[in-house]
Amino acid sequence: MSETPVKQQTTGAYYGQAVASFGIAMAATAIGIFQLEASAWVRAFLAIAVLYLTTSAFTLAKVIRDRQEAGQIVNRVDQARLEELLTAHDPLRKL
């Protein structure tokens, strides 16, 4: 049986860009909220809402990734079973 490893195509530059983009977006949002001419309660509510939205997005991304990885494992098991059946099958064998 041959196993096909799952290749990750994420480079260091891509990872750095994603981290920097996230940091800039959070900083810009925080500056925007705190520069807003509203009461402290309104700004605090918006800040908590942004933090909740951010943690929810991370959780959703993790759940999607976990489901995808689980699907890949099932596909590998199914592929291994099929290869085993094909290897064991001899069409020239007499019945």
From the N-terminal CA to the C-terminal CA, the straight-line distance is 26 Å
> How much helicity do the residues have?
over 70%
User: What is the string of SSEs from the N terminus onward?
Assistant: HH
Mean pLDDT, as a whole number? 85
**SS content category:** mainly alpha
Shape: elongated
Please tally the β strands and state the result: 0
Show unreliable segments: none
Strand content: under 5%
Largest sheet: none
What is the rounded Rg? 25 Å
Number of helices: 2
Descriptive labels:
95 residues, mainly alpha, 77% helix, 0% strand
Question: How does this model look, in words?
Answer:
With 95 residues, this protein is an all-alpha fold. The protein has helices at 12-35, 40-88. α1 (12-35) runs antiparallel to α2. The longest helix has 49 residues, at 40-88. The chain is elongated and about 85 Å long. The two termini are 26 Å apart. The relative contact order is 0.08.
